[in-house]
From TrEMBL:
<dbReference type="Pfam" id="PF13589">
    <property type="entry name" value="HATPase_c_3"/>
</dbReference>
<feature type="region of interest" description="Disordered">
    <location>
        <begin position="250"/>
        <end position="269"/>
    </location>
</feature>
<feature type="binding site">
    <location>
        <position position="417"/>
    </location>
    <ligand>
        <name>ATP</name>
    </ligand>
</feature>
<feature type="binding site">
    <location>
        <position position="102"/>
    </location>
    <ligand>
        <name>ATP</name>
    </ligand>
</feature>
<feature type="binding site">
    <location>
        <position position="108"/>
    </location>
    <ligand>
        <name>ATP</name>
    </ligand>
</feature>
<keyword id="KW-0547">Nucleotide-binding</keyword>
<dbReference type="InterPro" id="IPR020568">
    <property type="entry name" value="Ribosomal_Su5_D2-typ_SF"/>
</dbReference>
<keyword id="KW-0067">ATP-binding</keyword>
<protein>
    <submittedName>
        <fullName>Heat shock protein Hsp90</fullName>
    </submittedName>
</protein>
<feature type="binding site">
    <location>
        <position position="37"/>
    </location>
    <ligand>
        <name>ATP</name>
    </ligand>
</feature>
<keyword id="KW-0346">Stress response</keyword>
<dbReference type="InterPro" id="IPR020575">
    <property type="entry name" value="Hsp90_N"/>
</dbReference>
<dbReference type="InterPro" id="IPR001404">
    <property type="entry name" value="Hsp90_fam"/>
</dbReference>
<dbReference type="InterPro" id="IPR019805">
    <property type="entry name" value="Heat_shock_protein_90_CS"/>
</dbReference>
<feature type="binding site">
    <location>
        <position position="94"/>
    </location>
    <ligand>
        <name>ATP</name>
    </ligand>
</feature>
<dbReference type="Pfam" id="PF00183">
    <property type="entry name" value="HSP90"/>
</dbReference>
<dbReference type="InterPro" id="IPR037196">
    <property type="entry name" value="HSP90_C"/>
</dbReference>
């Protein structure tokens, strides 16, 4: 394709060069995808033409063929090329401007982000990433050194004629050329892509290989015929060179004289048996061989003459075929997790066939994108693509991950989306798809676990684990915003981790409840791991008693559960809040009551003292029924925030600051109680100290917050312990301590006391300051190894830092000098 016409040279957009490099680098072992990509582009161009021709009749004359042809051509001798693959479609084609724009730049959104990600990834990760991004035209360079794209637009450009132009580029080039095709017009309209195949990719010029690839990747992906054009050279008798016409000479000769194929030999063997035996001396007459010559024929063979997959009988289609069809149609490099193939009736007398797929992950922009009208439903009429934009009848956001083909039999071919919308068809289709997808999910979720005999792996229920991992959060979203009917079905499909099991449905939880249990217990900790939540102080007694607790780790979990209000007749109970009932309290009611009454009397002094101590911080101090080993916990009241809710609210307030929220948060913070564990030795110890104090009368006569009486050393120390106990309870219960510095200073004192170390002794601080400010010029030419900065030995003598600790009035030691900030800095 040498041209004498002046060629316009264009630099590739820098992103294109980067993408081509990644494609070529990472996909060497998946080179064969190039054919799928180019066929997919050809299919798109044909669809585009057919659809625009519905409104602009001038674009397509009646009877004009819409098809794709793959030609495999040998290369001229001595060129060093392995051959050429030429893929031609009779689609919309491109103007010279479109050739430059479409093939020289990347218009895809998110390209830059993708490139940054891909460049930082390993080669195999790159392969995966690219699979998701879509390779498109640039995959040509996986097998070709040079690519020529000749194209004629179907539409006449404004004020001009339709011309055939060429886009040409080498695999290594930083630029490409666009010029009028020196061959003139060879195409009516459409695009012809010529790949000059590299020597190491010569397998792709082999018809057998190409047939195999089309069968594997593309046979179902286009409804337009794909033809394979090959040149076949055969040896045939040369009639002209023969004096006797061959047909005539054969008439007189024995069958063995004709050039034989293997089949001929077989049939001849069969005939020989029927012939009368010849005497040994009758030698067979050997006829003269006719002269032969090589004849090259053009052969067109349709590669996709089978009907599209969705109209086939499901029994005749293998899983692999379903998966291949999915990957090429929906441009996904991963197999789908499940499919459903069914025929239906829309309810408005339109019958249709449909094929649904659950992809292996949510689309990358699932959470970030606004509701998109265009999603993964491809609407066809009589096998011909109509639209993938269902307008207002697009699938709801929660299920927009669904990939589906819907092919209606009884609609006119030239129907437009607007016309469809005026009928009820689209709305009916949408509701049928959602219903069917939910029933597919239910089937997977309820499949009993079974063992695959070949692999020995668990199947059935295991498949749903994969599905849940991939789209579980979308199912939760559906359960939250779906209609009442959907809410229950989707709620049944949700799965949770618990303290005893990993993957539990709500129905399963309910049937596993203990006698008398009226609550579904849950504990929420957004962003935490379920196994860490399972160790929470709030679960210890429930766990020890054998109750199951749902562990919620995603932000919407708690809101979702509360939106159900009840499940299977049980209410939901946050175990970090008041109101926890085991349901068997009545069984041992008398014994329990007596024990509670005894404990209440015994611990009354401690409860009273703690209530006084924590006044304004917690609402109440009570004896706990939920602790086993931990000494205490902070429990939110019904209207208070659990630690989880408090964190969520705090995150929200950072974005939406308003005083009503602040007020609410402050109110909620106060709605909590401290529960103490009467069985804990620490609590027992505190009780003993309180019993030794003489404080009750003082407090009763006290009007202010601070008792007017003298505080003894024992009470002072108990106050410190009480503060640490409260902060510890907050942390244990997942809350934040209000002032971590004070908390740790207190811990510090207790540690010193237990070690017999002075409570006021200061740490010796000896810090070498940074050298003086650099005044010399900046050296931009950094050497690989910069010389080490030199410091003088111990250049400054620093004064000791003092660290202020809360002062203990009972300490026998002289008071330490307070840290003077200004003085400290002066010294520096
Ligand atoms: N055979 C063709 N006929 C007409 N236009 C084409 C053809 N092949 C490519 N194009 C144009 O070139 C553009 C870029 O093609 P490319 O294959 O790189 O990306 P894409 O098809 O948009 O995306 P992807 O293939 O990744 O889904 C296409 O959007 C289309 O406009």
């Amino acid at each position: 394709q040498e041209s004498s016409t002046p060629k316009e040279k264009h630099e590739y957009q820098s992103d294109v060069a980067r993408l081509r490099r990644i494609v070529i680098n990472s996909l060497y072992s998946h080179r064969d995808v190039f054919l799928r990509e180019l066929i997919s582009n050809a299919n798109d161009a044909l669809e585009k033409l057919r659809i625009t021709a519905l409104t602009d009749k001038s674009l397509l004359q009646a009877g004009e063929p819409l098809n794709i042809t793959i030609k495999l051509l040998p290369s001229p001798a001595g060129t060093g090329e392995a051959g050429r693959v030429v893929i031609t479609d009779t689609g919309v084609g491109m103007t010279p401007e479109e050739l430059t724009q479409n093939l020289g730049t990347l218009a895809k959104s998110g390209t830059s982000d993708f490139l940054v990600q891909a460049e930082g990834a390993s080669t195999s990760q790159q392969g995966n990433l690219i699979g998701q991004f879509g390779l498109g035209f640039y995959s040509s360079f996986l097998v070709a050194d040079h690519v020529y794209v000749a194209s004629v637009p179907a539409a006449r450009p404004e004020g001009g004629e339709r011309e055939q132009w060429v886009f040409a580029s080498g695999a290594e080039d930083q630029s490409f050329e666009v010029y009028p095709d020196p061959r003139g017009r060879t195409l009516e309209h459409g695009t012809e892509i010529t790949l000059v195949v590299r020597d190491d990719a010569k397998e792709f010029v082999d018809p057998k290989k190409v047939k195999e690839l089309v069968e594997k990747h593309s046979s179902f992906s286009t409804t337009y015929p794909i033809y394979l054009y090959t040149l076949i050279t055969e040896e045939v008798p040369d009639e002209e060179a023969s004096s006797v016409p061959i047909a005539e000479s054969l008439e007189h000769e024995a069958p063995s004289a004709s050039p034989k194929s293997e089949a001929d030999e077989d049939s001849e063997a069969a005939i020989v048996e029927d012939l009368p035996e010849e005497s040994e001396d009758t030698a067979p007459v050997t006829p003269p061989l006719p002269p032969m010559k090589n004849v090259t024929r053009e052969v067109y063979e349709q590669l996709n003459d089978q009907p599209p997959i969705w109209v086939c009988d499901a029994k005749t289609v293998s899983d692999e075929e379903y998966n291949e069809f999915y990957k090429s149609t929906f441009k996904d490099s991963h197999d789908p997790l499940a499919h459903l193939h069914f025929a239906g009736d829309s309810g408005s007398t339109v019958s249709f066939k449909s094929l649904l797929y659950i992809p292996s992950e949510l689309p990358p922009d699932f959470w970030s994108s606004q509701m998109s009208r265009v999603n993964g439903v491809r609407l066809m009429v009589k096998r011909v693509f109509i639209t993938n934009d269902l307008g207002d009848d697009a699938l709801p956001k929660w299920i927009s991950w669904l990939r589906a083909i819907v092919d209606a039999d009884d609609l006119p071919l030239n129907v437009s989306r607007e016309q469809l919308q005026s009928t009820k068809f689209l709305a009916q289709i949408k509701s049928i798809l959602v219903k069917r997808a939910i029933s597919l999910l239910q089937k997977l979720a309820n499949a009993p676990p079974s063992i695959n005999e070949e692999t020995g792996e668990e199947e059935g229920g295991a498949k749903y684990k994969e599905v849940w991992k991939a789209i579980g959060s979308a199912i939760k979203m559906g359960a939250m915003e779906g209609s009442a009917g959907q809410k229950n079905k989707l709620g049944s499909l949700t799965r949770w981790a618990t303290n005893t099991r990993e993957f539990v449905g709500l129905d399963d939880y309910v049937s596993n409840r203990k006698k008398g249990q009226k609550q579904i217990f849950y504990l929420a900790g957004v962003g935490q791991r379920a196994e860490d939540l399972a160790k929470s102080v709030f679960i210890e007694k429930l766990h020890a008693r054998g109750y199951e607790v749902l562990l919620l780790t995603e932000p919407m979990d708690e809101i979702l559960l509360n939106s159900f209000q009840r499940w299977g007749g049980l209410t939901f109970q946050d175990v970090a809040k008041k109101g926890l009932k085991y349901g068997d309290e009545d069984l041992d009611a008398e014994a329990d009551k007596t024990e509670q009454a005894t404990l209440a009397v015994r611990f009354a002094p401690l409860l009273g003292w703690l209530k006084q101590e924590y006044k304004g911080t917690v609402m109440d101090v009570v004896i706990s029924n939920r602790l086993v080993t931990s000494p205490c916990a902070i429990v939110a009241d019904q209207y208070g925030y659990s630690a989880n809710m408090e964190r969520l609210m705090a995150a929200q307030q950072r974005t939406a600051k308003d005083s009503a929220n602040d007020w609410m948060a402050e109110f909620a913070r106060k709605q909590r109680s401290l529960e103490i564990n009467p069985k804990s030795p620490l609590i027992e110890g505190m009780l003993r100290v309180v019993q030794g104090l003489d404080w009750e009368e003082d407090v009763l006569s006290d009007e202010g917050d601070k008792p007017s009486r003298e505080i003894t050393q024992a009470e002072f120390e108990l106050k410190e312990v009480a503060q640490i106990l409260l902060d510890g309870a907050l942390v244990r219960s997942g809350f934040e301590v209000s002032d971590p510095n004070t908390f740790f200073s207190r811990v510090d004192i207790i540690l010193r006391r237990s070690l017999g170390v002075s409570e006021t002794a200061q740490a010796k601080v000896d810090v070498r300051p940074a050298p003086p400010v650099e005044t010399g010029p900046l050296d931009w030419n950094f050497k690989q190894h910069e010389p080490e900065l030199e410091f003088k030995e111990d250049p400054f003598e620093l004064g000791d830092f003092d660290y202020e600790l809360p002062k203990n009035p009972f300490s026998q030691e002289p008071e330490a000098k307070a840290f003077d900030e200004a003085q400290g800095h002066d010294e520096l």
